Amino acid sequence: MSETNQNTSVKSTAHIRIVGLNRDKTRKTSGSGTVYQVYFELSVPQSGMPQAWRNIFEGEWKVLNPTQPHLWQAASVDGRFLVMHCPLQEIAAHLSALKKAVAATNITYKQYVQEQAAKQEHREWKQERKTVDDLAESLHFE
């Protein structure tokens, strides 16, 4: 991926946010009288949600809720949605934490992408050096 495309992808992904509640997808969990699958729409870039962003979100969600392990499985990313499993009356109480987790994920993801780009650049530099070294070894000087 070119640097321009990568920077654009990082920039658009780094600004993911919760933009609304999807009323059509939000439904009561099968077999439950009170728990719903609440679908929040995310502002996902055209290229789609990177798997790394999803993985980082899971970690950030746990960090923000260290004393509430019952919530760890309650929030997940599904495509371009953030899904929360809980009673509807609890959504307002969890929304602030969800927004914080998304913001923290954006920051961590941006750092992750920058680290990956630096590693790739280093690999390319090492390959270039190897190519030059191989050429130097193949030349014969008096």
Task: Give an overview in words.
This protein has 142 residues and is of the alpha+beta class. It has helices at residues 3-13, 51-64, 69-72, 91-138, and strands at 18-21, 27-28, 35-42, 75-78, 81-87. Residues 1-12 have low confidence and may be disordered. It has one domain (3-134). The protein is elongated. Strands 1, 2, 3, 4 and 5 form a five-stranded antiparallel β-sheet that branches. The chain contains four helices and five strands; from the N terminus they run H-E-E-E-H-H-E-E-H. Helix 2 (51-64) crosses helix 4. Strand 2 (27-28) and strand 3 (35-42) form a beta hairpin.
Can I get a quick summary?
The protein has 142 residues and is of the alpha+beta class. Helix content is 54%, strand content 18%.
Write the layout of secondary structure elements.
Elements: H1 3-13, E1 18-21, E2 27-28, E3 35-42, H2 51-64, H3 69-72, E4 75-78, E5 81-87, H4 91-138
Antiparallel strand pairs: 1-3, 2-3, 3-5, 4-5
Helix pairs in contact: 2-4
The proportion of residues in beta strands is 15-25%
Number of domains: 1
Mean pLDDT: 83
* Terminus-to-terminus distance: 43 Å
What string, H for helix and E for strand, traces the elements in order? HEEEHHEEH
The rough form would be described as elongated
Radius of gyration: 22 Å
> Regions with pLDDT < 50 over 5+ consecutive residues?
1-12
Number of strands: 5
Q: Count of helical segments? A: 4
Sheet with the most strands, sense and barrel status: 5 strands, antiparallel
Q: Percent range for helical residues?
A: 40-55%
